[in-house]
Amino acid sequence: MRRKALIGPLASIAVGYLTLFHTTLSWQLSAVSVGLVAGALCGRTSTATSSSLLGSVPFLAALSLRVLDRTGWRLLELVSSIAGLQPSVVLGLLVLSYVGIAASSSAIVSVVLGAIRARKGR
Amino acid sequence: MSPRLRRAIASTASVLVLAALLLVSGPLQALHPVRGIWTEIDNARWASGEVRLKGLKGTVTVVVDSRGVPHVFAEDELDALRVLGYLHARERLWQMDVQRRLASGRLSELLGEAAFRTDLLMRVIGLHRSARSTARWLEQNRPDVYGALKAYADGVNAAIEELRSAGRLPMTFKLLGYEPEPWKVEDSILWAKYMAWTLTGFWYPLLLTYLAIKLGPDAVAELYPVRHYYSENVTVVPGDGSIAGASLGVEPEVLMRLDWFGEWATGVDLTDPELSRELAELIERVAELARITPSELGSNNWVVGPMRSATGGPILADDPHLPLNLPSLWYEVHLVTRDYNVRGVTLPGVPFVVIGFNEHLAWGLTNSQIGVTDFYVEKVQGDRYLFRGEWRPLERVVEEITVRGQGVRRITVNLTVHGPLFSHGDLHVSLKWTGNTGFNDDGSGVTREAVAAYMLMRARGLNDLLEALKFWDVPSQNWAFVDRDGNFGIVIPGLFPFRVVRLPDGREVRVIGSRSVLNGTGGHEWAGFVPFSQVPMTVNPERGYAAAPNQLTVGPRYPYFILGGWYDPGARAQRIHWLLASKALHSVEDFASYQCDTVLWFARSVTPRLIASVERFPDLDGRERRALEDLRGWDYSMSRDSVAPTVFWAWFSALYDEAFKRPFSERGVRWRLYPLESTLVWLINERPDSPWFGGNLSLAARRALRTAVERLTEALGPDVSGWSWGRVHRLRIGHLTSLDALSIGPLPHDGSSGTLLNAGFPYDLSALGSRTFVTTGPSWRMIVTFTGDRVEAYGVYPGGQSENPISEHYSDSFDEWYACRLHRLEAPPRPDQVIDRVVTIAFRGSGT
């Protein structure tokens, strides 16, 4: 049972990693993929949401490496100034978007699957 | 709450959150942590090692120096150019792509409606059509040159593929959300055509026609003379212009007095009120479409021979004044092959050194300003036009312009034997330009600059230079040169079309260019091009120097009467002639200081007279007296820290308005087309009782001074000592996207439009307190001298080698340029001799 519970989070991380580093998907689709997998493999909505947060780890790690690099931060500053925003705001929006997209996707899937299961159960 | 309801609420909320986040995250797409803009970090650094490049015959060694300048060492020329294509694309791919879009009328695909009018104009002019024809002609007639362009294009495409497959396209592609198309040979020709168009595609015959309609031909003759005031003693080619064995056949004085707007000269009756009204309206519409403004562009070059050189060998200086942008217009390169060792600047997208030097020869360009564009009023009925008594069918080209977010728009371009038509109601005017007619004047658009540039890189001295320049068709340029044998001078090659015009007295004269629209039905056609043996040139002139800062080319007795053209008013020519003549020997350091000289010749010529015209007025207030005091002690240097230049500029600008604003406006001139400075200076010095001054210069100058001081007080405050020139005259080097974050400035800047340190700035008081900046100037400064077997060269441009804004080479040369310092340009024959090498890359064929 415990082993089964690990499948969702681990699969989410794997999908997060694969979609980011080994496909040409946009990061938004990567986040949706993580959410779909987490939602599909985890029974409860709360578990699915947690899994999707774990699935965001590759994204957050890759992003951290970029902005911790001095040149990377300069680039972020540059792009932020084009948008007229603070770099931290842009960064915050980015992180929030990835995590939010993954989490809400997982919630949608798990709710829908839950509803289907409930209907079948009846 | 029931589980079902809870689920419904949760899923609805999640859908809403997801939709909102997807929407918000759209603009953040380019921030993908793996393939997003961050790849610019990798792109910003060159790394030593090996690069596989398809098609290379041998190994090419590239040494990148501390300024990011590549030194390319190849046995085979095509290998070198293939690598050059790769390097251009690695450093300037987005710039190259935007440039070709601009030139071919495809910007709207990226920028939408905002760029549509620009695209429309370019599609009508049709540089892309001429570029295609030229590429085909080269393929069939000059496979060597075509091969060079093809090798270069292959190199560009190799880099595009490498960047694309690695997800490392430059950030601007990612921010704008598109990818570049493959590079074609005609794309290189296209950009060269665009440069040619911006340098010689003059609208001035239209503008002068407009002014003649509004002001009358006499006023135009006085305000916009065929040969500018104060220019006769400083022509590019010294002397009266006559060439042995060829003559003008008519006294120049007679030609100067003629009304060149008259029907006898043009076949168009500008006194017909209906026609002139329609023509003026058409010109206003074309001017609006083309955003025509009087040009602030110009360039400097000059040379001295060994007898006037402190180095013992000839010295050349060149600085083309062009729009200053980031990424920079130029890309520096050093190419060594078995055929040549050449260094200088290239245009990204074009595989040839445009301005530079090899071991035998150095060359630098300025614009010759000679008119090579004519406009014809066409007689059109339906889909036919009348030419030489025959109704011919209009050639129709359908152009499809894709506008981002709005789909495809189809436009039909109508062409006559002269070129594309601009129409307004029943009036049709065609544009004939040498770049579109081609060297056979057959409308093919085939021109051969690529052949000349190809030959030039391997030139071994003056004779080879002259052979190469026989193929230089457009834009006509003043080619300053020095060579290892001590030769020096200026050659002005190009397609100079002439017409044979019958004068009112029955005599015939060969005329280059026009000042008015011409009748297009066949009586005012080009009769040919000036043969190379008669193009203007000065080789090893006796006085030991020559200079060509865009002033009049030749004296008035040149065998062809140069009627059309738009020459610089001549302040820079006067100043450099004075500097070159005033000293027996000149050094490289002297030349560098001349390039940054800020003395305004016209200010020296008129300031004492202007002061004298107002100083006795008793009603001068304290600030006006203080302003005049500053002018009295002025050395005429347009220095950014001085107050006097600001006062002079404001006063001169206000005097322009005094003289011309009301009469121009009353006569319906819709935009600011004031005459050149040389005309206002002439009126001040020679016609103080001119009606343009209301018959009294003193009163006009007094009113102008009051206006100037009031406007300066309003814009800069009441303290005259704070009116430094740098507060008004500010430099901005804008990124091609116009984004401030990627641009330099605004910064206080020395010079003005009329100083050798050229910094284009209008005489217009509305520039005070507005976002009017200096945006043109020396786009590349170069000085070269030959001493014995040694070539010594220096250069700098206001930017850097890379378009990548986080590269250390994005704008690393700007500070040197701004401070008027130059880099030493080494051109060693072997890789191990590059002094400040940072990275060494071996390019090898991929074998596939």
List the helices and strands and how they pair.
The complex is a heterodimer of chains A (122) and B (848).
Chain A lengths: L1 H20 L5 H15 L3 H11 L1 H12 L1 H14 L3 H35 L1
Chain B lengths: L2 H23 L13 H5 L5 E4 L7 E6 L4 E4 L3 H28 L3 H4 L4 H10 L1 H15 L1 H23 L5 H6 L8 H16 L3 H12 L1 H7 L28 H6 L5 H4 L6 H18 L7 E7 L10 E9 L1 E2 L4 E6 L4 E6 L6 E5 L3 E7 L5 E6 L1 E2 L2 E4 L2 E4 L1 E9 L3 E9 L5 E4 L2 E7 H4 L11 H9 L4 H8 L7 E7 L4 E4 L5 E6 L5 E5 L5 E2 L8 E2 L7 E3 L5 E3 L13 E2 L8 H11 L6 H8 L5 H14 L7 H11 L11 H23 L10 H10 L10 H20 L8 H4 L1 E6 L8 E5 L27 E3 L2 E7 L2 E7 L17 H5 L4 E2 L12 E8 L4
Parallel strand pairs in B: 1-34, 3-7, 6-28, 11-23, 22-27
Antiparallel strand pairs in B: 2-3, 2-34, 4-5, 4-26, 5-30, 5-31, 7-8, 8-9, 9-10, 10-19, 11-18, 12-13, 13-14, 15-16, 17-18, 19-20, 20-25, 21-22, 21-24, 28-29, 31-32, 32-33
Helix pairs in contact in B: 3-7, 3-9, 6-7, 6-9, 10-11, 10-14, 16-17, 20-23, 21-22, 22-24
Q: Determine the fraction of residues in helical runs of chain B and give it as a percent range.
A: 25-40%
Radius of gyration of chain B: 28 Å
Helical stretch tally of chain B? 26
Report the β-strand fraction of chain B as a percent range.
15-25%
Overall, the morphology of chain B is: globular
Strand content of chain A: under 5%
End-to-end Cα distance of chain B, whole Å, is 69 Å
Q: Please, what is the oligomeric state?
A: heterodimer
Largest sheet of chain A: none
Secondary structure tally: strands of chain A:
0
Tally the helices of chain A: what do you get? 6
What is the helix fraction of residues of chain A, given as a range?
over 70%
In which order are the strands of the major sheet of chain B placed?
1-34-2-3-7-8-9-10-19-20-25
Structural class call of chain B reads alpha+beta
The CATH topology of the domain at 203-295 and 370-452 and 479-542 in chain B corresponds to: Penicillin G acylase, beta-roll domain
Low-pLDDT runs of chain A: none
